[in-house]
Amino acid sequence: MAVCSAYTTQSLNSTCSISTPAKTHLGFHQKQVVFYRRSSKRGGSGSGSGSSSGPCVITCSAGDSQTVVIGLAADSGCGKSTFMRRLTSVFGGAAEPPKGGNPDSNTLISDMTTVICLDDYHSLDRTGRKEKGVTALDPRANDFDLMYEQVKAIKSGVAVDKPIYNHVTGLLDPPELIKPPKILVIEGLHPMFDERVRDLLDFSIYLDISNEVKFAWKIQRDMAERGHSLESIKASIEARKPDFDAYIDPQKKYADAVIEVLPTELIPDDNEGKVLRVRLIMKEGVKHFSPVYLFDEGSTISWIPCGRKLTCSYPGIKFHYGPDTYFGNEVSILEMDGQFDRLDELIYVESHLSNISTKFYGEVTQQMLKHADFPGSNNGTGLFQTIVGLKIRDLYEQITSSKTAAPLEATKA
Ligand SMILES: Nc1ncnc2c1ncn2[C@@H]1O[C@H](COP(=O)(O)OP(=O)(O)OP(=O)(O)O)[C@@H](O)[C@H]1O
Ligand SMILES: O=C(CO)[C@H](O)[C@H](O)COP(=O)(O)O
Protein backbone atom coordinates (compact mmCIF):
# COMPACT_ATOMS: atom_id res chain seq x y z
CA MET A 1 0.00 0.00 0.00
CA ALA A 2 1.40 3.36 -0.97
CA VAL A 3 0.51 6.54 0.82
CA CYS A 4 -1.06 9.27 -1.31
CA SER A 5 0.88 11.89 0.55
CA ALA A 6 1.31 14.16 -2.42
CA TYR A 7 -2.38 14.98 -2.54
CA THR A 8 -3.42 14.95 1.01
CA THR A 9 -3.65 18.62 1.90
CA GLN A 10 -6.33 19.56 -0.52
CA SER A 11 -7.91 16.24 -1.29
CA LEU A 12 -8.45 15.04 2.25
CA ASN A 13 -9.78 18.34 3.42
CA SER A 14 -12.28 18.44 0.62
CA THR A 15 -13.13 14.77 0.96
CA CYS A 16 -14.04 15.21 4.58
CA SER A 17 -16.25 18.19 4.15
CA ILE A 18 -19.88 18.26 3.17
CA SER A 19 -20.60 19.91 -0.13
CA THR A 20 -23.91 21.54 -1.08
CA PRO A 21 -26.37 18.87 -0.11
CA ALA A 22 -28.15 16.96 -2.83
CA LYS A 23 -30.97 14.73 -1.75
CA THR A 24 -31.14 11.14 -2.88
CA HIS A 25 -34.11 8.81 -3.05
CA LEU A 26 -33.03 7.34 0.29
CA GLY A 27 -33.40 10.73 1.88
CA PHE A 28 -29.82 11.59 2.64
CA HIS A 29 -27.88 14.63 1.73
CA GLN A 30 -25.04 13.54 -0.48
CA LYS A 31 -21.54 14.24 0.70
CA GLN A 32 -19.05 14.79 -2.06
CA VAL A 33 -16.52 12.03 -1.71
CA VAL A 34 -13.68 12.34 -4.15
CA PHE A 35 -11.30 9.52 -4.92
CA TYR A 36 -8.09 10.78 -6.37
CA ARG A 37 -5.85 8.90 -8.76
CA ARG A 38 -2.21 9.72 -9.08
CA SER A 39 -2.58 10.04 -12.81
CA SER A 40 -5.78 12.00 -12.61
CA LYS A 41 -6.00 15.65 -13.57
CA ARG A 42 -8.90 15.95 -11.10
CA GLY A 43 -6.52 15.48 -8.26
CA GLY A 44 -5.87 19.16 -7.64
CA SER A 45 -2.62 19.67 -5.82
CA GLY A 46 -1.62 16.10 -6.46
CA SER A 47 -2.24 15.89 -10.14
CA GLY A 48 0.67 14.85 -12.18
CA SER A 49 3.03 14.56 -9.28
CA GLY A 50 3.02 10.78 -9.07
CA SER A 51 3.92 8.16 -11.57
CA SER A 52 1.81 5.22 -10.38
CA SER A 53 -1.81 4.84 -11.41
CA GLY A 54 -4.88 3.03 -10.11
CA PRO A 55 -7.60 4.07 -7.75
CA CYS A 56 -6.37 5.74 -4.62
CA VAL A 57 -8.64 4.81 -1.72
CA ILE A 58 -8.68 7.59 0.78
CA THR A 59 -9.71 6.79 4.32
CA CYS A 60 -10.42 9.85 6.39
CA SER A 61 -9.75 9.97 10.05
CA ALA A 62 -13.14 10.75 11.51
CA GLY A 63 -11.97 13.92 13.17
CA ASP A 64 -15.08 15.61 14.43
CA SER A 65 -17.23 14.47 11.55
CA GLN A 66 -17.87 10.90 12.62
CA THR A 67 -20.80 10.08 14.81
CA VAL A 68 -20.66 7.45 17.55
CA VAL A 69 -23.77 5.29 17.30
CA ILE A 70 -25.48 3.69 20.29
CA GLY A 71 -28.38 1.23 20.04
CA LEU A 72 -31.02 0.87 22.75
CA ALA A 73 -33.54 -1.91 22.34
CA ALA A 74 -36.65 -2.60 24.39
CA ASP A 75 -40.33 -3.21 24.08
CA SER A 76 -42.68 -0.28 24.34
CA GLY A 77 -43.23 1.03 27.88
CA CYS A 78 -40.03 -0.51 29.22
CA GLY A 79 -38.21 2.63 30.25
CA LYS A 80 -36.37 3.72 27.08
CA SER A 81 -37.40 7.36 27.43
CA THR A 82 -36.39 7.43 31.07
CA PHE A 83 -33.02 5.90 30.21
CA MET A 84 -32.52 8.45 27.42
CA ARG A 85 -33.19 11.30 29.81
CA ARG A 86 -30.56 9.93 32.17
CA LEU A 87 -28.09 9.43 29.34
CA THR A 88 -28.45 12.89 27.82
CA SER A 89 -28.14 14.40 31.28
CA VAL A 90 -24.73 12.75 31.70
CA PHE A 91 -23.57 14.67 28.63
CA GLY A 92 -25.10 17.88 29.98
CA GLY A 93 -27.92 19.94 28.54
CA ALA A 94 -31.55 19.08 28.12
CA ALA A 95 -32.81 17.05 25.19
CA GLU A 96 -35.60 18.65 23.18
CA PRO A 97 -37.58 17.93 20.01
CA PRO A 98 -36.22 19.62 16.85
CA LYS A 99 -37.01 23.34 17.05
CA GLY A 100 -39.80 24.53 14.78
CA GLY A 101 -40.42 21.03 13.52
CA ASN A 102 -43.30 18.59 13.70
CA PRO A 103 -44.77 18.80 17.23
CA ASP A 104 -45.27 15.03 17.11
CA SER A 105 -41.62 14.33 16.25
CA ASN A 106 -40.12 11.43 18.21
CA THR A 107 -36.60 12.88 18.02
CA LEU A 108 -34.75 14.45 20.94
CA ILE A 109 -31.76 16.68 20.40
CA SER A 110 -29.23 17.99 22.92
CA ASP A 111 -25.78 19.57 22.47
CA MET A 112 -24.01 16.24 22.17
CA THR A 113 -26.70 13.70 21.39
CA THR A 114 -29.52 13.08 19.00
CA VAL A 115 -31.95 10.33 19.95
CA ILE A 116 -34.02 8.96 17.10
CA CYS A 117 -36.86 6.55 17.63
CA LEU A 118 -36.90 3.60 15.27
CA ASP A 119 -40.69 3.68 15.16
CA ASP A 120 -40.01 6.29 12.47
CA TYR A 121 -38.96 3.44 10.18
CA HIS A 122 -42.37 1.77 10.31
CA SER A 123 -43.15 1.15 6.65
CA LEU A 124 -46.79 0.48 7.41
CA ASP A 125 -48.92 2.99 9.24
CA ARG A 126 -51.54 1.97 11.79
CA THR A 127 -54.19 1.29 9.14
CA GLY A 128 -51.71 -0.53 6.92
CA ARG A 129 -50.75 -2.84 9.77
CA LYS A 130 -54.37 -3.52 10.57
CA GLU A 131 -55.14 -4.34 6.94
CA LYS A 132 -52.18 -6.67 6.64
CA GLY A 133 -52.74 -8.18 10.10
CA VAL A 134 -49.21 -7.48 11.34
CA THR A 135 -47.97 -5.76 14.48
CA ALA A 136 -45.37 -2.97 14.61
CA LEU A 137 -42.94 -5.53 16.01
CA ASP A 138 -43.08 -7.57 12.82
CA PRO A 139 -40.11 -6.86 10.53
CA ARG A 140 -42.55 -6.66 7.59
CA ALA A 141 -43.92 -3.46 9.13
CA ASN A 142 -40.49 -1.81 9.15
CA ASP A 143 -38.10 -0.53 6.50
CA PHE A 144 -34.69 -1.90 7.47
CA ASP A 145 -33.06 -0.89 4.17
CA LEU A 146 -33.83 2.75 4.84
CA MET A 147 -32.88 2.43 8.51
CA TYR A 148 -29.51 1.01 7.50
CA GLU A 149 -28.82 3.55 4.76
CA GLN A 150 -29.74 6.50 6.97
CA VAL A 151 -27.87 5.38 10.10
CA LYS A 152 -24.85 4.64 7.91
CA ALA A 153 -25.09 8.08 6.32
CA ILE A 154 -25.39 9.88 9.67
CA LYS A 155 -22.50 7.85 11.07
CA SER A 156 -20.31 9.02 8.24
CA GLY A 157 -21.31 12.65 8.69
CA VAL A 158 -24.14 13.05 6.22
CA ALA A 159 -27.51 14.61 7.09
CA VAL A 160 -30.66 12.67 6.26
CA ASP A 161 -34.36 13.31 5.83
CA LYS A 162 -35.77 10.76 8.23
CA PRO A 163 -39.43 9.83 8.10
CA ILE A 164 -41.65 10.43 11.14
CA TYR A 165 -44.16 7.94 12.49
CA ASN A 166 -46.84 9.97 14.20
CA HIS A 167 -48.05 8.15 17.31
CA VAL A 168 -50.95 10.58 17.70
CA THR A 169 -52.47 10.00 14.25
CA GLY A 170 -50.93 6.62 13.43
CA LEU A 171 -49.75 8.04 10.09
CA LEU A 172 -46.37 8.53 8.44
CA ASP A 173 -45.68 12.27 8.43
CA PRO A 174 -43.34 14.23 6.12
CA PRO A 175 -39.68 13.68 7.01
CA GLU A 176 -37.47 15.76 9.29
CA LEU A 177 -33.84 16.68 8.76
CA ILE A 178 -31.38 14.87 11.05
CA LYS A 179 -27.90 16.34 11.07
CA PRO A 180 -25.00 14.18 12.22
CA PRO A 181 -24.56 14.66 15.98
CA LYS A 182 -21.56 13.66 18.08
CA ILE A 183 -23.58 10.78 19.48
CA LEU A 184 -26.55 9.22 17.74
CA VAL A 185 -28.79 6.98 19.83
CA ILE A 186 -31.16 4.77 17.91
CA GLU A 187 -33.81 3.55 20.32
CA GLY A 188 -36.77 1.34 19.74
CA LEU A 189 -37.93 -2.13 18.95
CA HIS A 190 -35.27 -3.25 16.46
CA PRO A 191 -31.84 -1.58 16.71
CA MET A 192 -30.04 -4.93 16.68
CA PHE A 193 -32.41 -6.90 14.44
CA ASP A 194 -30.82 -6.19 11.07
CA GLU A 195 -27.20 -7.32 10.83
CA ARG A 196 -26.20 -4.29 8.75
CA VAL A 197 -27.62 -1.85 11.31
CA ARG A 198 -26.14 -3.89 14.16
CA ASP A 199 -22.70 -3.62 12.61
CA LEU A 200 -22.96 0.17 12.67
CA LEU A 201 -23.40 0.26 16.45
CA ASP A 202 -20.46 1.27 18.60
CA PHE A 203 -22.31 0.05 21.68
CA SER A 204 -25.63 -1.69 22.24
CA ILE A 205 -27.97 -1.97 25.20
CA TYR A 206 -31.04 -4.11 25.77
CA LEU A 207 -33.61 -3.33 28.47
CA ASP A 208 -34.95 -6.73 29.46
CA ILE A 209 -38.07 -6.22 31.54
CA SER A 210 -39.63 -9.45 32.81
CA ASN A 211 -43.30 -10.03 32.00
CA GLU A 212 -44.39 -9.53 35.62
CA VAL A 213 -42.66 -6.16 35.89
CA LYS A 214 -43.73 -5.04 32.40
CA PHE A 215 -47.30 -5.77 33.40
CA ALA A 216 -46.96 -3.79 36.65
CA TRP A 217 -45.45 -0.79 34.79
CA LYS A 218 -48.10 -0.93 32.07
CA ILE A 219 -50.85 -0.94 34.67
CA GLN A 220 -49.28 1.99 36.42
CA ARG A 221 -48.97 4.04 33.24
CA ASP A 222 -51.80 2.92 30.99
CA MET A 223 -54.41 2.37 33.68
CA ALA A 224 -53.54 5.12 36.16
CA GLU A 225 -52.37 7.74 33.67
CA ARG A 226 -54.16 6.87 30.42
CA GLY A 227 -57.44 5.42 31.63
CA HIS A 228 -57.10 1.97 29.95
CA SER A 229 -58.86 -1.01 31.52
CA LEU A 230 -57.02 -3.93 33.09
CA GLU A 231 -58.46 -6.26 30.44
CA SER A 232 -57.30 -4.09 27.55
CA ILE A 233 -53.78 -3.88 29.00
CA LYS A 234 -53.66 -7.66 29.40
CA ALA A 235 -55.01 -8.15 25.87
CA SER A 236 -52.46 -5.75 24.37
CA ILE A 237 -49.55 -7.49 26.12
CA GLU A 238 -50.84 -10.92 25.02
CA ALA A 239 -51.35 -9.75 21.42
CA ARG A 240 -47.77 -8.49 21.19
CA LYS A 241 -46.15 -11.44 22.92
CA PRO A 242 -45.62 -13.83 19.95
CA ASP A 243 -43.91 -11.13 17.88
CA PHE A 244 -42.05 -9.84 20.91
CA ASP A 245 -40.65 -13.35 21.51
CA ALA A 246 -39.86 -13.83 17.83
CA TYR A 247 -38.29 -10.48 16.90
CA ILE A 248 -37.51 -8.29 19.90
CA ASP A 249 -36.31 -10.52 22.71
CA PRO A 250 -33.68 -12.41 20.60
CA GLN A 251 -31.77 -9.16 20.13
CA LYS A 252 -30.52 -9.31 23.71
CA LYS A 253 -27.90 -11.87 22.75
CA TYR A 254 -26.16 -9.19 20.66
CA ALA A 255 -26.21 -6.49 23.36
CA ASP A 256 -22.99 -5.27 24.96
CA ALA A 257 -24.96 -4.47 28.12
CA VAL A 258 -28.31 -5.80 29.26
CA ILE A 259 -30.32 -4.33 32.12
CA GLU A 260 -32.56 -7.14 33.30
CA VAL A 261 -35.44 -6.22 35.59
CA LEU A 262 -37.05 -8.98 37.64
CA PRO A 263 -39.34 -9.27 40.66
CA THR A 264 -37.52 -9.16 43.98
CA GLU A 265 -36.31 -12.34 45.63
CA LEU A 266 -36.28 -10.61 49.01
CA ILE A 267 -40.05 -10.90 49.46
CA PRO A 268 -41.37 -14.43 49.00
CA ASP A 269 -44.00 -14.68 46.21
CA ASP A 270 -44.03 -10.94 45.63
CA ASN A 271 -46.32 -10.01 42.76
CA GLU A 272 -46.61 -6.29 43.28
CA GLY A 273 -43.61 -5.48 41.12
CA LYS A 274 -42.63 -2.55 43.32
CA VAL A 275 -39.41 -3.93 44.75
CA LEU A 276 -37.11 -5.02 41.94
CA ARG A 277 -34.10 -7.25 41.37
CA VAL A 278 -32.04 -5.62 38.65
CA ARG A 279 -29.08 -7.21 36.90
CA LEU A 280 -26.51 -5.36 34.81
CA ILE A 281 -25.04 -7.91 32.41
CA MET A 282 -21.85 -6.63 30.83
CA LYS A 283 -20.10 -8.39 27.97
CA GLU A 284 -16.37 -8.94 28.38
CA GLY A 285 -13.95 -7.96 25.61
CA VAL A 286 -15.98 -5.10 24.12
CA LYS A 287 -13.75 -2.41 22.67
CA HIS A 288 -13.71 0.78 24.75
CA PHE A 289 -15.84 -0.82 27.47
CA SER A 290 -14.62 -2.39 30.68
CA PRO A 291 -17.27 -3.84 32.97
CA VAL A 292 -18.03 -2.31 36.35
CA TYR A 293 -17.09 -4.40 39.38
CA LEU A 294 -17.82 -4.61 43.07
CA PHE A 295 -14.85 -4.81 45.46
CA ASP A 296 -12.66 -7.22 43.52
CA GLU A 297 -12.67 -7.71 39.74
CA GLY A 298 -13.53 -11.25 38.69
CA SER A 299 -14.45 -12.49 42.17
CA THR A 300 -17.90 -13.64 43.17
CA ILE A 301 -19.32 -11.44 45.90
CA SER A 302 -22.59 -11.10 47.81
CA TRP A 303 -22.98 -7.93 49.80
CA ILE A 304 -25.70 -6.62 52.08
CA PRO A 305 -24.71 -2.99 52.59
CA CYS A 306 -27.44 -2.26 55.16
CA GLY A 307 -26.10 -1.20 58.54
CA ARG A 308 -24.38 1.86 59.84
CA LYS A 309 -23.76 3.60 56.52
CA LEU A 310 -26.90 2.70 54.59
CA THR A 311 -30.42 2.93 55.94
CA CYS A 312 -32.54 0.01 54.75
CA SER A 313 -36.12 -0.69 55.62
CA TYR A 314 -37.88 -3.98 54.80
CA PRO A 315 -36.97 -5.95 52.69
CA GLY A 316 -33.45 -4.53 52.65
CA ILE A 317 -30.87 -4.40 49.85
CA LYS A 318 -28.65 -7.14 48.50
CA PHE A 319 -25.89 -6.83 45.90
CA HIS A 320 -24.27 -9.63 44.00
CA TYR A 321 -21.35 -9.49 41.58
CA GLY A 322 -19.47 -12.11 39.62
CA PRO A 323 -18.46 -13.61 36.29
CA ASP A 324 -20.95 -15.64 34.28
CA THR A 325 -21.91 -16.60 30.74
CA TYR A 326 -24.79 -15.17 28.75
CA PHE A 327 -25.78 -16.67 25.39
CA GLY A 328 -22.33 -18.24 25.23
CA ASN A 329 -20.50 -14.97 25.92
CA GLU A 330 -18.35 -14.23 28.94
CA VAL A 331 -19.96 -11.54 31.03
CA SER A 332 -19.74 -9.85 34.41
CA ILE A 333 -23.00 -9.42 36.25
CA LEU A 334 -23.72 -6.81 38.89
CA GLU A 335 -27.04 -7.28 40.65
CA MET A 336 -29.02 -5.17 43.06
CA ASP A 337 -32.18 -6.42 44.78
CA GLY A 338 -34.19 -4.00 46.90
CA GLN A 339 -34.45 -0.24 47.09
CA PHE A 340 -32.76 2.74 48.68
CA ASP A 341 -34.45 4.59 51.51
CA ARG A 342 -32.15 7.59 51.31
CA LEU A 343 -30.64 8.42 47.96
CA ASP A 344 -27.87 10.59 49.42
CA GLU A 345 -26.51 7.44 51.11
CA LEU A 346 -25.93 5.90 47.71
CA ILE A 347 -22.43 7.37 47.90
CA TYR A 348 -21.58 4.49 50.25
CA VAL A 349 -22.46 1.95 47.55
CA GLU A 350 -20.79 4.03 44.83
CA SER A 351 -17.53 4.10 46.77
CA HIS A 352 -17.39 0.30 46.62
CA LEU A 353 -17.90 0.10 42.86
CA SER A 354 -14.99 0.36 40.43
CA ASN A 355 -14.69 1.07 36.71
CA ILE A 356 -17.77 3.27 36.83
CA SER A 357 -16.16 5.89 34.58
CA THR A 358 -16.98 8.85 36.81
CA LYS A 359 -15.06 12.09 36.42
CA PHE A 360 -15.19 12.87 40.14
CA TYR A 361 -15.97 11.09 43.39
CA GLY A 362 -19.72 10.83 43.89
CA GLU A 363 -20.79 11.54 40.30
CA VAL A 364 -23.19 8.57 40.20
CA THR A 365 -24.86 9.74 43.41
CA GLN A 366 -25.03 13.29 42.10
CA GLN A 367 -26.73 12.15 38.88
CA MET A 368 -29.20 10.00 40.80
CA LEU A 369 -30.06 12.85 43.17
CA LYS A 370 -30.46 15.23 40.24
CA HIS A 371 -33.15 12.99 38.77
CA ALA A 372 -34.66 11.64 41.95
CA ASP A 373 -38.12 12.13 40.44
CA PHE A 374 -37.47 9.81 37.47
CA PRO A 375 -38.99 6.32 37.68
CA GLY A 376 -36.56 3.81 39.20
CA SER A 377 -34.38 6.33 41.02
CA ASN A 378 -34.55 4.39 44.26
CA ASN A 379 -33.53 1.05 42.80
CA GLY A 380 -31.16 -0.76 40.45
CA THR A 381 -32.90 0.42 37.27
CA GLY A 382 -31.93 4.04 37.91
CA LEU A 383 -28.53 3.13 39.31
CA PHE A 384 -27.55 0.90 36.38
CA GLN A 385 -29.00 3.24 33.75
CA THR A 386 -26.89 6.03 35.24
CA ILE A 387 -23.77 3.86 35.26
CA VAL A 388 -24.34 2.76 31.65
CA GLY A 389 -24.73 6.45 30.76
CA LEU A 390 -21.32 7.16 32.28
CA LYS A 391 -19.80 4.16 30.48
CA ILE A 392 -21.18 5.50 27.19
CA ARG A 393 -19.59 8.89 27.85
CA ASP A 394 -16.31 7.13 28.50
CA LEU A 395 -16.67 5.02 25.34
CA TYR A 396 -17.41 8.15 23.32
CA GLU A 397 -14.35 9.90 24.72
CA GLN A 398 -12.14 6.90 24.01
CA ILE A 399 -13.41 6.53 20.44
CA THR A 400 -13.02 10.21 19.62
CA SER A 401 -9.61 10.55 21.26
CA SER A 402 -8.30 7.50 19.43
CA LYS A 403 -9.71 8.86 16.17
CA THR A 404 -8.13 12.28 16.54
CA ALA A 405 -4.84 10.71 17.58
CA ALA A 406 -4.74 8.50 14.48
CA PRO A 407 -3.16 10.13 11.44
CA LEU A 408 -5.12 10.59 8.26
CA GLU A 409 -4.52 7.53 6.25
CA ALA A 410 -4.61 7.57 2.50
CA THR A 411 -3.79 4.42 0.68
CA LYS A 412 -3.75 3.28 -2.89
CA ALA A 413 -5.17 -0.02 -4.03
N1 LIG B 1 -37.32 2.09 36.34
C1 LIG B 1 -38.64 2.17 36.44
N2 LIG B 1 -39.27 1.89 37.58
C2 LIG B 1 -40.61 1.96 37.66
N3 LIG B 1 -41.40 2.27 36.63
C3 LIG B 1 -40.83 2.54 35.47
C4 LIG B 1 -39.41 2.51 35.30
N4 LIG B 1 -39.11 2.84 34.03
C5 LIG B 1 -40.27 3.04 33.42
N5 LIG B 1 -41.30 2.87 34.29
C6 LIG B 1 -42.73 2.96 34.00
O1 LIG B 1 -42.93 2.67 32.64
C7 LIG B 1 -43.50 3.79 31.98
C8 LIG B 1 -42.85 3.91 30.61
O2 LIG B 1 -41.53 4.41 30.76
P1 LIG B 1 -40.84 5.11 29.54
O3 LIG B 1 -41.74 6.17 28.99
O4 LIG B 1 -39.48 5.51 29.97
O5 LIG B 1 -40.78 3.87 28.56
P2 LIG B 1 -40.65 3.78 26.97
O6 LIG B 1 -39.99 2.48 26.69
O7 LIG B 1 -39.98 4.98 26.44
O8 LIG B 1 -42.16 3.75 26.54
P3 LIG B 1 -42.80 3.97 25.07
O9 LIG B 1 -41.98 3.23 24.09
O10 LIG B 1 -44.17 3.38 25.22
O11 LIG B 1 -42.83 5.45 24.86
C9 LIG B 1 -43.29 4.98 32.92
O12 LIG B 1 -44.33 5.92 32.82
C10 LIG B 1 -43.30 4.34 34.26
O13 LIG B 1 -44.63 4.17 34.67
O1 LIG C 1 -44.41 -0.88 19.78
C1 LIG C 1 -44.44 0.30 19.58
C2 LIG C 1 -43.19 1.07 19.74
O2 LIG C 1 -43.36 2.28 20.41
C3 LIG C 1 -45.70 0.93 19.11
O3 LIG C 1 -46.77 0.13 19.47
C4 LIG C 1 -45.64 1.07 17.59
O4 LIG C 1 -44.66 2.03 17.24
C5 LIG C 1 -46.99 1.48 17.02
O5 LIG C 1 -47.38 2.69 17.58
P1 LIG C 1 -48.92 3.05 17.75
O6 LIG C 1 -49.46 2.05 18.74
O7 LIG C 1 -48.89 4.46 18.29
O8 LIG C 1 -49.56 2.96 16.43
From TrEMBL:
UniProt GO cellular component terms: chloroplast
Record lineage: Eukaryota, Viridiplantae, Streptophyta, Embryophyta, Tracheophyta
Gene source species: Gossypium darwinii
Chief location category: plastid
Compartment(s) where it occurs, according to its Swiss-Prot or TrEMBL record: Plastid, Chloroplast
Protein name: Phosphoribulokinase
Pathway recorded for this protein: Carbohydrate biosynthesis; Calvin cycle
SUPFAM superfamilies: P-loop containing nucleoside triphosphate hydrolases
The organism's place on the tree of life at top rank: Eukaryota
Keywords: ATP-binding, Calvin cycle, Chloroplast, Disulfide bond, Kinase, Nucleotide-binding, Photosynthesis, Plastid, Transferase, Transit peptide
